[in-house]
Amino acid sequence: MLVRRTEDPAYWQRFRPDRADLQYVAELIRETGRPMYLEELARALVYRRVHEERERIRRLVERGRFYRPADRYELNEEVIFPVLDYAVGVVVGKRPGRWPGHPPFEVIQVQLGETVREFAAAYAEPHKLNELEFQATQSGEGMTPAAIYEQLATSVPAALRAALAADTEFGFVSLGRRWFLRALMPEVHVGYLNLAEAVIDVAWEQAAQTGGGQRPLTTEEILEQIELPGPSQAANAFALALALSQDERFIDVGDGEQHLWLLRRLVPSHALQKPERLQYQPVSYSPEALPTEMLELIWGVVDELSTMEVPPERRARESGEVTFALPYPHRRAGTLPLAGAVAHLFPQREDGVSVVTLLDELNDEAITAWVVHKDRYVASLAEWYERYQVPAGALLTVARTARPDVLRIRYQQKRRTQREYVRVAVVQGDRLTFEIRRMPMSVEFDETMIMLDDDPAESDRLWRAALANRKPFSQIVREVFGQLAQLSPQGTVHFNTLYTAVNVIRRCPPEPLLAELALDWRYVVVGNGFFAMDERTGVKQ
Q: Could you say which of 415, 450, 484 is where a domain stops?
């Protein structure tokens, strides 16, 4: 079967929209009267190209016949050449053809545009062009336009996006993945933007006073109080959303599909600027140094800086519920990590901020939290941690609800407060030490990751000093390991414990730490995630 151009993957790989394509897209948007997603436009453009090719072939079939070397042709007969991109020629001459050792045949001269080319005819011997079938081409069968778009034309959306962005004739404008025409949009001048600011401000303040739950406003909710002179509600909403996105006073905190608007000054600073305790100065290490048999140690830590892909079986189950140990850096920053299975529960965006509501069913309260997509954390839980004495290492459960912007959160509560032996970080001068203390605990925790602060301000001072002095990472690990080893009669330290303790003085993900343990022969694996120090060298105190 002869492959049509639109059924050839190379055709779509080379595809670049021309002016006619862009004009078609502009007319399509004008006819629908609404902003359209890039994927909609790309699919329509592919369908158009496929339809045009099939119509062209149908018209050509009506005008003549396909060229085969075995057939005979008469003067002035029209002939279609599929292998020449379905070019149509007219037979303008004939002569005998001779090829030593082969039967006689004819040579036809065909006018193709401004040139005349010669082709064999009445050729009796086998030839691959004689074997081609044209029935499907003539009957309109073949790959469906939908199959062509899904299987062959996957590069069209990107090519179309580039062409729309570069166009200066038709006036395309975009917001997210949707495109519209500037000529169809009403003007949104500064007066409308000032009104929008007042609408958002008043709604936020009223919600705070009534306790009804603070939330951003959709574009449509703002439009209810602003009368734009546009041709349609869809055009008005797009124009207002585009204007809001270009004004520094406003911030879109939606999930990427729906626009939700707030004033930037209402967003807490820790959602716009990464908290100090989450800031990471990269530690260089070789991924090849990570022992394959110890990757479970990395996957067991929920850290947004981790680069190791979590296996599918460790991701969020269909129930949409994940339980994990709260890492020390996030306890100090008042945040949650967007990593591993946890990340799949929250709204997904490339960058920006989304607002979500976390429902604490244990204490019957709602927390307005902020999902910082690029830096991969959820902010605004510091007060909740403090109120219920949730420590680093506490077992937290986060679960989806029917609404993507509302999730449930709870800590694992003990039946009653008990005095438990826990690790406490204690700063002595310029050294970080650790003690085991018996403390009242009301929250269940992971024993390998529990860490309290004797004096958080002193821990922060030591943190800043280590950064200012550029203390080598290997030295930090050595000193922290030595201090932790003193807490165990066997002198062993669990990987999770070392990870937590190192993060008291230096932010780091699990990979550089495991690489350090694997490459330094003084650290000995003793099993079940525990390490010891080679007694022949000891640890410099």
A: 415
Q: How far apart are the C-alpha atoms of 350 and 31, rounded to whole Å? A: 32
40 and 163 within one domain: yes
| Inter-residue contact 268 to 370 (CB < 8 Å) | yes
Q: Give the domain-ending residue among 399, 415, 431.
A: 415
Structural domain of 93:
69-131
516, part of any domain? no
Same domain as 206, residue 190: yes
For the whole model, what pTM was predicted? 0.74
CA distance 437 to 444: 16
Q: Is 305 a member of any domain?
A: yes
Q: Indicate whether 162 belongs to any domain.
A: yes
For residues 292 and 69, give the distance between their C-alpha atoms in angstroms, rounded to a whole number.
Answer: 63
What's the number of CA atoms in the CB half-sphere (13 Å) around residue 295?
11
Contact (Cβ atoms closer than 8 angstroms) between residue 173 and residue 161? no
Looking at the domain assignment, is residue 488 inside a domain? no
**What is each CA distance from 192 to 169, 202, 232, 263, in whole angstroms?**
28, 15, 17, 15
DSSP assignment of 390-417 equals --BTBEEEEEE-SSTTEEEEEE-EEEEE
Residues 399, 364 share a domain? yes
CA pair distance 367, 213, nearest whole angstrom: 9
Tens of pLDDT, residue by residue over 339-367, are: 988 998 998 888 889 988 999 989 989 89
Q: How far apart are CA 439 and CA 427, in angstroms?
A: 18
How confident is the model at residue 540, as a pLDDT? Answer: 42
CA 12 from chain center: how many Å?
Answer: 25
Q: Note the pLDDT tens digit of each residue in 42-94.
A: 999 999 999 988 887 777 777 667 888 999 999 998 888 877 877 888 999 99
Structural contact between residues 356 and 369, judged by C-beta atoms closer than 8 angstroms: yes
Q: What is the CATH number of the domain that holds 226?
A: 1.10.10.10
Q: State how far the Cα of 508 lies from the Cα of 467, in Å rounded to an integer.
A: 12
Distance CA 175, CA 179 (A): 7
Q: Are residues 79 and 49 in the same domain?
A: no
Q: How many CB atoms lie within 10 A of CB 442?
A: 16
